[in-house]
Amino acid sequence: MEKVKCDCGHVNPYGTYLCESCGKPLLDDNQSLADMRYEGVARRSQTYSKSVVDKVWNFFSSVKVGIWIIVLILLASMLGTIFPQEMYIPAGERASTYYEQEYGVLGKLYYQLGLHTMYSSWWYMLLIASLGISLVICSLDRVVPLHRALKTQRVTRHKGFLSRQKLFSKTEKMEEPEKSIEKAEKVLKEKHYRIFKEDGNILAEKGRFARWGPYVNHVGLIIFLIGAMLRFFPEMYIDEHIWVREGEQVVIRGTDGEYFLRNDEFIVELYDEEDERFRESFERTGGNPVVKTFQTSATLLKRINNEGPIGLGTEFEEIMQYDIRVNDPLTFDGYSLYQVDYKLNELSEFTFTLQRNEDSSEEDLSDIQFTVDLFNPELVYEFENGYRVEIFQYFPNFYINDQKEPDTLNRIPDNPRIIFEVFTPEMNPDTDRGELSLVGVQVNEALNGDNNYRIRMIDVDMNHVTALTVRRDRTLPILIVGGVIFMIGLVQGSYWYHRRIWLQNRDGEIWVAGHTNKNWHGLKKDFETITKNTAIPMPLDQTDDWNLIEEVEGVKGKDDSSTSK
Amino acid sequence: MKQKRLVIRTIILLVMFIAIGYTFYNHFSEERGLVDQGDIAPNFAVEDLDGNYLELADLQGKGVYVNFWATWCSYCRDKMEYLTEYYTVYQEKGVEIVSVNFNERAGIVERHMERYNYNFPLYLDEQRLVSNAYGVVSLPTSFLIDENGVVIERAVGGKSETQVVAALEKLIPSN
Fold it and tell me: Which keywords does UniProt give here (chain B) (predicted)?
C-alpha cells in the first residue's frame, strides 16, 4: 500500500486515478478519457482490506451493496402490502385465523411467514439499519477524499489530464496567447466564474457547492432514519389506545399512572337522511347512516402526588375539560388524545320487575322494580312487601367454558346473564333456597324446578364507549429537520452545476479543457461565449464520433451523455 | 495514518452498531415490566371485601406473593386454587398472599369468592390504580416481594402447581 508520488510533487494515496493536485493520470486504464467521478480520487474502501473492521467498512462502502439493500427494501415493502398488516385487520379478529379465512392458502402462508407484522420484523429492521450504515459509510468514504481533491487541485494541470477531458482542444502556436487568455478571463468573470491564476494559466470554476448536494441529502436522510429509530423508545414515542365508557374514569396509558380521563358524554351526529342535498350520497351508501361527527366531552384529571401509598386514598385534581373530536385532540404535557373510534349502545343497565306465573294471582307485585348496573351490580334487592331478590351469580359476557361450566369471557356486558334468587316474604334468605332463574337478553330459564315467580326485563339502558389514541411524538422535530436538510441537499445538487474551465498557455499553444458534473450543454454555451470574444477555439466533444461538434450543437440529450465511451 | 484510519473506522462502526443493537434489544427483548426484578416494590394500600385495610409496607419482614387476577380469567382461577391449598402452610412460614382484583366491582368479586371459596382475602382495585402502577397488562401477573420489600420475580401468565409452590418457597424469609 505505497503512496504514489506524482511528477508534480504531490503525494497521492494508493489507488488514485488522477493526481489530486495536477490531474496527471496515475493508473493506465487504457481509456481515452479520464474517469472524473469523485475527481479520480482513491476511494479507500476499494483499495484496503486488512482487518475485520476494514472488511466490514468496505462492504458497506460499496454503492453496489447500497443499491442492493435499497432493492431488497423495495421488494420487501411491496410484500408487506399484499394483504393488510395485522394492525389494520378488523378489531377483535385473530390474526391466526383471519388471514386464512379471508385470503385462503396464500393468506395462511402470509401469516406463517410473518408478513402480517413485517414492518416491525427483525429482518426488515435489519435491512433499514443496513441502509443507514451504508449511507453513512458510502458518504464518508467519498466526500472526504473528494473534498480534499477539490481543495488541493492546482491551476496548472498535467497535459494528460487536459487532453483526456471530454471537452478539449488546443491551438497552434499563436501570437500573444496571454492576451486571449486575459480576454477570456474577463468573459468568464462576467459569467460569475471564480478565477484562479498560476503562471499565466487560469482555472475558472463555479458551483463547486453543487458537489456537496448528495452528501447534504444523505445527512438529511440519516437524521430522518435516526428519528425513525428513536420511535422505538417510549421516552420519545408513545402510541396507545384507551376505551372509556360514559361516566367512567380510566388511567391514560403511557402516562405512568399520572393522568386520568373521565368520559362525561359521548355524542355521535349522523347526516340527515331526509336532507335533499345528501340524497345522492345516501344512495351510494345504500341508505346506511353516515357519521357527521363524533365527540367525547372529557375531563382530564391528574393524580395528586402525595407521599402515601398507591391505591386507596388517591386524590385527583381536575386539570381541564375538553371536547375531543376527530382532528381536534386534547393536548397536555406533550401528550395528545385523538378521537379514533367508538362503540355505541353497549348494555349498561337492566330494569326488572317480578311477576307471578299463575294468572290467578291476587297479589300486586308491580311495585317491585329494580335496576341492575351491569358493571357494578348490587347483590341484594329488598322490597317493602317483604320480597327479596338476590343476584346468585352474574356473567357479564356469558359462555360455557371447557369444564362445561357457565363462565364469563371478560367484564364487558356484551352478553349478560344473571342468575337471580327470589325469596318470598315467608322465606328466610339465610337458610332457605329461593327460586333460581337465569335471565338475559331473550333468555329466562327456571333453574330449580318450576318457578312460581318470573323476573321480567322491562327496560334496558345503554351507554356509549369512546376509543381514543394516546400519542406522544417527540421525534417529529427530528423528522422535520431531516426532511428539510434532505430537500436542501436535493436542491443544491440539482439546480447548481459544478463547471470548470482550464485555459493554459503551453509554449504559445493554448490548451482548452472543460468539465462539468452535469448539463454539458450549459458548459458548451459558456465556451461559445469565449470563442466569440477571443481567438480561443471551441473545444471538441471527444465523445462525439468524427468530432462533429458543430452539427450536434444545441441538440439536447446528446450533450448530457456520460464521459465514458 | 493507517492507525488513525482504523481507529476512526472502528469508532464510527461501533457507534452505529451500538445504537442499532440497543434499539433492537429494546424492541425485541422480553419487555421489562414497569415494576420488575430488583426494584423496590411500590407501596400500595387496598381494602378487601370486608373493608379490611392493607398496606404493603406493613408486611415488611414477610415474603409477599402479590397476585393480580380477575374473575373472568381462567388461568387466574387455576392459580388461586393452588394458592388456596398452600395459603395456611406458607402463612405459618412467613409468606403472605395478597390477591388484588383487576378492575372489577365488589359485588362481582364477592359472588366469585362465594363460588370458589378462596381462603385468603380478596383485595379490590376498582380503578386499576395499583395494577397500573405495577404495569400489569395481562392476567394473571404476580410479583414476588421478599422480606425487605424488593421484587425478586415478576411472573406473567398461567402457572402450574409446582411453579406456584416453588415461588412460595422462594419467599420464605431467611431469618
Answer: Cytochrome c-type biogenesis, Disulfide bond, Membrane, Redox-active center, Signal-anchor, Transmembrane, Transmembrane helix
Could you say which DSSP state residue A565 is in? -
CATH of the domain at B131: 3.40.30.10
Q: Do residue A441 and residue A390 come from a single domain? A: yes
In a domain, A486, yes or no: no
Lookup result for grid cell 312487601: A385
Please report, for residues A245, B101, B108, B109, B121, the alpha-carbon distance to residue B48 in angstroms, rounded to integers and kept in the order given. Answer: 25, 10, 13, 10, 6
- Of the candidates A54, A229, A379, which has its C-beta nearest B107's C-beta? A379
Rounded distance between C-alpha atoms, residue B109 and residue B129, angstroms:
17
Strand ranges in A26-140 using DSSP code E only, listed in sequence order = none
Q: Are residues B130 and B61 in the same domain?
A: yes
Chain-chain contact of A229 with B20 (C-beta, under 8 angstroms): yes
Q: What CA–CA distance (Å, rounded) separates A432 from A410?
A: 31
Could you list the residue range(s) of the whole structural domain that residue B19 is in? Answer: 1-30
Is the model more confident about A313 or about A221? Answer: A221
- Write the residue in B74, B106, B129 that is nearest to A401 by C-beta: B74
Task: Determine what percent of chain A is predicted with pLDDT higher than 70.
Answer: 92
Strand partners, A243: A467
Query: Does residue A134 lie in a domain region?
Result: yes
> What is the C-alpha to C-alpha distance for residues A109 and A90, in angstroms, rounded to an integer?
19
Closest residue, chain B, to A230 (C-alpha) = B23
Residue B35 lies in a domain: no
Q: Are residues B146 and B94 in the same domain?
A: yes
Whether residues B6 and B81 share a domain: the answer is no
Q: Could you read off the pLDDT of A353-377 as tens digits, one per residue?
A: 888 776 655 666 777 888 888 888 8
Does one domain contain both A331 and A364? no
Q: How far is A126 from chain B (nearest CA, A)?
A: 9
Residue A331 belongs to domain spanning: 237-345+467-474
Q: What is the pLDDT of residues A378-399, one digit of tens each?
A: 888 888 888 888 888 888 888 8
Contact at CB, B42 and A310, closer than 8 angstroms: yes
Residues B118 and B149 in one domain: yes
Pairing verdict, β A335-356 and A330-332: antiparallel
Q: Cis peptide before A234, with omega less than 30 degrees from 0?
A: no
Contacts of B56 in chain A (CB under 8 A): 309
Euclidean distance between the first and the last CA atom of chain A, given in angstroms as a whole number: 30
Asked if A88 and A116 count as a contact pair (C-beta separation under 8 A), the reply is no
Question: Which tens digits make up the pLDDT trace of A431-489?
Answer: 888 888 888 888 888 877 777 788 888 888 888 888 899 999 999 999 999 999 999 99
Is the CB of B129 less than 8 angstroms away from the CB of A311?
yes
Q: Do A250 and A274 have their domain in common?
A: yes
Domain assignment present for A481: no
How many domains does chain A divide into? 4
Half-sphere exposure at residue A87, Cβ-oriented, CA atoms within 13 angstroms: 8
Question: What is the rounded distance in angstroms from the CA atom of residue A180 to the CA atom of residue A200?
Answer: 11
What is the average per-residue pLDDT within A533-556?
Answer: 62
The complex's ipTM?
0.79
* Interface test mutation site (partner B, options A43, A312, A371, A478, max chain B beta carbons within 10 A): A312
Indicate if the pLDDT at residue A290 is higher than 90: no
Contact A122 B28 (CB under 8 A): yes
Tell me: do A51 and A141 sit in the same domain: yes
